[in-house]
């Protein structure tokens, strides 16, 4: 079944988080001034232009040589980022900096926020939470100088042994697509590109990037299980780019596989996203380029660069193929304002904030799943006078993050012991035992009213788990503590499902995943009931490995250089339904401190436009406020050969005690389709479709029927995506959007959401107006015909600030001398010096909001992007590199964030013609530059 996302109602539970995210965005504006668009110049007329993106791309590409185009497709080494394409100064093309990752700024960078693992954000089942998660990631990546965030990871968790399960979303293609798209929109709202990964069928680490990891999977399973989340991500998410994977798919490496790149991403999905290889995932030159691979990373494997140029010269790769790849890359660069907004971020910057920390805590609060609460053991009440906190994971060895490229370095982590102790206050005795001795821990537990045991299991990129059991010592510890104290609560810090042989002997269990730097505060919030548990499982927890879909060696980790995906569509909860097995905890499961009921299911009839509306009433039947996730499952007619039921909608609601609300789910033809292997296309069967609503895959109290009498449901409407848009604030725009309707004589009417302030769309589909403020947004344009059939397309729109009103003034330094271009020379490499102030054009400078200091149409530049004391300063074509960014500091200093050094007058000279340099900032007068009105 094709899984198209349905509109969701954002839960009130996350209104505060959304507000915090907006606060974070405001803080970012203070840390990273909105970039001003430089005026178009004769050298680079595509910079600062208000022409359509496609025209600007064509104008630039007409000036590019083959070697310059190929440099846009080839990574380089030596930057502060995990990947980079080089700047081309003569064409004003900025560098593209790519940085991990899916859980925030990674690779050991400091001064960042360690968010909870992506699986924790997924367990919120809340698009508002995912968007806020993405906003923190995007803002911190941008503030570090990155332009592309390598995330999110949206691969299906096919098996709980996968070492990267913690950094993905879950086991369901609908859930992965909707939440992945929400995160992407959050990331890209900050102006940072998101690169969704890993295309496709990448579900294990064992043998990765070798021919032994050869996934044997049929096209229907690819289309219905492993590709839909990518469709949603590049569609409604408008992701700028896609990363192909280390997998081999049906005998062909993913990054050389035309079936998933050219045929699916570029043609079937109609996406203009560019495709980048995972690091080292390319294995041949022509095979990658001809299959649709636009960038090779990190670029040191010898397959692109000179080898690609040779392949073009030899006729193995056409020039048209190169042009198409570069056009996709440049389209996104223009669309995200990279030519108009020079990055002023720096890898050295501290980018975390109190607002980001608050978001991290709220994600951990709402992503933690309460799995058991016998006899209402939780929340802890005033009658609890003593708590035994047990386990190294509670204090000395807190497992707050997974490993690999999704590992984020926290400045500090609030341990569970610290969080519980702080929240408990002086009236509660909190004792700690590290759990190294089960008998000692049991003794400590026996003396307390409640025992809370913390255990964990490590997961990391690069290796899979051999089992899903906790360490035997951890299982023994829990059993011993539970025997000593029946009021034992277990907190699991794991990346995916684990077995629980002690489950019947404990009173409470939390799955807290990897909770990030706010670990201790979040678990204290939940234990004491300051926050109602509202997380739901995005994966099934089996009782043992014998229950999982891939339960043979041929399926996992593979045999004879093949990994057989013979389970086909029966992945996750689908498999448990098909085999009539009861897992330990089902997909979608999660408890609350209150209770809920479902009632009043209504299933509307299909309209001529091919849509129906399903509604259900959700009531809080308990005594306190709480949140519930209503889940819609569709059961296809048996003729379709589909799994027994599949998630097709969800919505999180927050209700006061006794309150009710109605949740609404639109169901369209696309939610009822399956892949027809005969026609190699989507098909809708006629018949009765079951409609089920509940709060997990195993608890579905409401049941109804949607009858489909014709395979042609309404008349399809298609909207042509205009691609990313980039305009200048204050400049009038007119962008036509077109649609087609198969019903003769009908003209669809258009509407739009997310347009930049000052713009509107006419009923005929033309977007006009004058954008009034800078920023990046995702625009959704919908066309609707007279029968009610609709189609929506999504694209990014970046508005860059105008340079109008930016003053041009002299800068006065040591001894009253002015910042000067020698003899008004603006030739690339000409020196920037001090000289007697004389009001010439070479002493007229504009300090734009993007951080560049400009004179005579060029930028003040640190020679060779050097970082050493004494590196000379020159004038050069503006090229978007950190070598041309200058921030105003204290005492009139001008700081180059890329080097961390200040513009300096050597030896406090006052001699005319002395060339300036960079030097350690010292607060001396020879580093003071005062703009004179």
UniProtKB/TrEMBL annotation:
<dbReference type="InterPro" id="IPR001764">
    <property type="entry name" value="Glyco_hydro_3_N"/>
</dbReference>
<dbReference type="InterPro" id="IPR035992">
    <property type="entry name" value="Ricin_B-like_lectins"/>
</dbReference>
<dbReference type="InterPro" id="IPR013783">
    <property type="entry name" value="Ig-like_fold"/>
</dbReference>
<dbReference type="GO" id="GO:0008422">
    <property type="term" value="F:beta-glucosidase activity"/>
</dbReference>
<dbReference type="GO" id="GO:0005509">
    <property type="term" value="F:calcium ion binding"/>
</dbReference>
<dbReference type="InterPro" id="IPR036962">
    <property type="entry name" value="Glyco_hydro_3_N_sf"/>
</dbReference>
<comment type="function">
    <text>Catalyzes the hydrolysis of a non-reducing terminal alpha-L-arabinopyranosidic linkage in ginsenoside Rb2 (alpha-L-arabinopyranosyl-(1-&gt;6)-alpha-D-glucopyranosyl) to release alpha-D-glucopyranosyl (Rd). It is not able to hydrolyze alpha-L-arabinofuranosyl-(1-&gt;6)-alpha-D-glucopyranosyl (Rc).</text>
</comment>
<dbReference type="InterPro" id="IPR017853">
    <property type="entry name" value="GH"/>
</dbReference>
<dbReference type="GO" id="GO:0016020">
    <property type="term" value="C:membrane"/>
</dbReference>
<feature type="domain" description="Fibronectin type III-like">
    <location>
        <begin position="628"/>
        <end position="697"/>
    </location>
</feature>
<dbReference type="InterPro" id="IPR002772">
    <property type="entry name" value="Glyco_hydro_3_C"/>
</dbReference>
<dbReference type="Pfam" id="PF05345">
    <property type="entry name" value="He_PIG"/>
</dbReference>
<dbReference type="GO" id="GO:0009251">
    <property type="term" value="P:glucan catabolic process"/>
</dbReference>
<dbReference type="Pfam" id="PF00933">
    <property type="entry name" value="Glyco_hydro_3"/>
</dbReference>
<keyword id="KW-0378">Hydrolase</keyword>
<keyword id="KW-0732">Signal</keyword>
<feature type="domain" description="Ricin B lectin">
    <location>
        <begin position="803"/>
        <end position="932"/>
    </location>
</feature>
<dbReference type="InterPro" id="IPR000772">
    <property type="entry name" value="Ricin_B_lectin"/>
</dbReference>
<dbReference type="Pfam" id="PF01915">
    <property type="entry name" value="Glyco_hydro_3_C"/>
</dbReference>
<protein>
    <recommendedName>
        <fullName>Exo-alpha-(1-&gt;6)-L-arabinopyranosidase</fullName>
    </recommendedName>
</protein>
<dbReference type="InterPro" id="IPR015919">
    <property type="entry name" value="Cadherin-like_sf"/>
</dbReference>
<feature type="signal peptide">
    <location>
        <begin position="1"/>
        <end position="36"/>
    </location>
</feature>
<dbReference type="InterPro" id="IPR036881">
    <property type="entry name" value="Glyco_hydro_3_C_sf"/>
</dbReference>
<dbReference type="Pfam" id="PF14310">
    <property type="entry name" value="Fn3-like"/>
</dbReference>
<dbReference type="InterPro" id="IPR050288">
    <property type="entry name" value="Cellulose_deg_GH3"/>
</dbReference>
<dbReference type="InterPro" id="IPR026891">
    <property type="entry name" value="Fn3-like"/>
</dbReference>
<dbReference type="Pfam" id="PF00652">
    <property type="entry name" value="Ricin_B_lectin"/>
</dbReference>
<comment type="similarity">
    <text>Belongs to the glycosyl hydrolase 3 family.</text>
</comment>
């Amino acid at each position: 079944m094709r899984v198209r996302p349905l509109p969701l109602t954002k839960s009130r539970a996350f209104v505060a988080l959304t507000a915090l995210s907006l606060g974070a965005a405001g803080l970012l504006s203070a840390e990273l001034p909105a970039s001003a668009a430089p005026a178009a110049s004769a050298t680079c007329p595509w910079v600062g232009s208000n022409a359509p993106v496609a025209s600007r791309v064509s104008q630039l590409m007409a000036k590019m040589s083959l070697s310059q185009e190929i440099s846009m497709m080839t990574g380089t080494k030596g930057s502060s980022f995990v990947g980079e394409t080089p700047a081309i100064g003569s064409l004003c093309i900025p560098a593209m900096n790519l940085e991990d990752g899916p859980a925030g700024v990674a690779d050991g960078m400091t001064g960042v926020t360690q968010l909870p693992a992506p699986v924790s954000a997924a367990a919120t089942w809340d698009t508002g939470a995912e968007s806020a998660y993405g906003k923190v990631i995007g803002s911190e990546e941008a503030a570090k100088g990155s332009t592309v965030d390598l995330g999110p990871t949206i691969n299906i968790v096919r098996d709980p042994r996968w070492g990267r399960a913690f950094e993905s979303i879950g086991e369901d293609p609908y859930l992965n697509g909707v939440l992945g798209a929400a995160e992407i929109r959050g990331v890209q709202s900050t102006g940072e590109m998101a690169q969704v990964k890993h295309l496709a069928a990448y579900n294990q680490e064992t043998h990765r990037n070798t021919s032994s990891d050869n996934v044997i999977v049929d096209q229907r399973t690819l289309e219905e299980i492993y590709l839909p989340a990518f469709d949603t991500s590049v569609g409604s998410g408008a992701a700028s780019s896609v990363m192909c994977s280390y997998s081999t798919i049906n005998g062909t490496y993913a990054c050389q596989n035309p079936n998933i790149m050219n045929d699916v991403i570029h043609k079937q999905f109609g996406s203009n996203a560019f495709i980048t290889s995972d690091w080292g995932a390319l294995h041949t030159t022509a095979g990658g380029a001809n299959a649709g691979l636009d960038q090779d990373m990190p670029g040191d494997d010898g397959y692109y660069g000179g080898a690609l140029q040779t392949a073009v010269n030899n006729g193995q790769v056409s020039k048209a193929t190169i042009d198409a790849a570069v056009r996709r890359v440049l389209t996104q660069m223009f669309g995200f304002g990279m030519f108009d907004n020079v990055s002023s971020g720096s890898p050295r910057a501290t980018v975390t904030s109190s607002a980001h920390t608050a978001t991290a805590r709220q994600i951990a609060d709402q992503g933690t799943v309460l799995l058991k609460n016998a006899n209402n053991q939780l929340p802890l009440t005033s009658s609890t006078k003593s708590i035994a906190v047990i386990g190294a994971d509670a204090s000395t060895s807190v497992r707050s993050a997974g490993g690999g490229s999704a590992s984020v370095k926290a400045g500090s982590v609030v341990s569970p012991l610290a969080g519980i102790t702080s929240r408990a206050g002086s009236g509660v005795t909190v004792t700690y035992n590290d759990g190294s001795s089960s008998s000692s821990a049991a003794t400590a537990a026996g003396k307390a009213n409640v025992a809370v045991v913390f255990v964990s299991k490590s997961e990391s990129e690069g290796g899979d788990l051999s089992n899903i059991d906790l360490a035997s010592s951890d299982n023994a510890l829990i059993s011993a503590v539970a025997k000593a104290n029946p009021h034992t609560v277990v907190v699991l810090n794991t990346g995916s499902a684990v077995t629980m042989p002690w489950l019947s002997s404990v009173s409470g269990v939390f799955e807290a995943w990897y909770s990030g730097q706010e670990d201790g505060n979040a678990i204290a919030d939940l234990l004491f009931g300051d926050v109602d548990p509202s997380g739901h499982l995005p994966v099934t927890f089996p009782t043992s490995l014998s229950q999982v879909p891939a339960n043979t060696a041929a399926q996992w980790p593979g045999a004879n250089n093949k990994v057989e995906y013979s389970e086909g569509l029966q992945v996750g909860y689908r498999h448990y339904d098909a085999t009539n097995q009861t897992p330990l905890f089902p997909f979608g499961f999660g408890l609350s401190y209150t209770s809920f009921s479902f009632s009043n299911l209504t299933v509307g009839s299909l309209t001529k436009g091919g849509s129906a509306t399903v509604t259900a009433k959700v009531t809080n039947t308990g005594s306190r406020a709480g949140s519930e996730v209503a889940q819609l499952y569709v059961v296809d007619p048996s003729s379709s050969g589909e799994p027994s039921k599949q998630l097709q909608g969800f919505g999180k609601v927050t209700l006061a005690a006794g309150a009710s609300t109605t949740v609404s789910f639109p169901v369209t033809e696309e939610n009822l389709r399956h892949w027809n292997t005969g026609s190699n296309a989507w098909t809708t069967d006629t018949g009765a479709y079951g409609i089920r609503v509940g709060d997990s895959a195993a608890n579905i109290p409401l049941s109804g029927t949607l009858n489909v009498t014709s395979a042609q449901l309404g008349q399809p409407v298609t909207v042509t995506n205009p691609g990313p848009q980039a305009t200048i604030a204050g400049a009038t725009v007119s962008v036509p959007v077109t649609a087609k309707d198969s019903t003769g004589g009908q003209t669809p009417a258009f509407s739009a959401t997310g347009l930049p302030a000052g713009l509107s769309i006419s009923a005929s589909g033309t977007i006009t107006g004058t954008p009034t403020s800078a920023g990046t947004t995702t625009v959704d344009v919908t066309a609707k015909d007279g029968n009610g059939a609709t189609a929506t397309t999504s694209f990014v729109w970046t508005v860059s600030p105008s340079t109008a009103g930016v003053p041009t003034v002299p800068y006065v330094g040591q001894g009253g001398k002015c910042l000067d271009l020698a003899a008004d020379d603006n030739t690339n490499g000409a020196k920037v010096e001090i000289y007697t102030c004389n009001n010439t054009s070479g002493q007229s400078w504009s300090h734009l909001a993007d951080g560049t200091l400009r004179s005579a149409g060029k930028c003040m530049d640190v020679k060779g992007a050097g970082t050493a004391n004494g590196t000379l300063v020159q004038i050069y074509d503006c090229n978007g590199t950190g070598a041309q960014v200058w921030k105003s500091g204290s005492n009139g200093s001008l700081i180059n964030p890329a080097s961390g050094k200040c513009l300096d007058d050597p030896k406090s000279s006052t001699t005319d013609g002395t060339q300036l340099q960079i030097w350690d900032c010292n607060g001396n007068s020879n580093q003071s530059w005062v703009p004179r009105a």
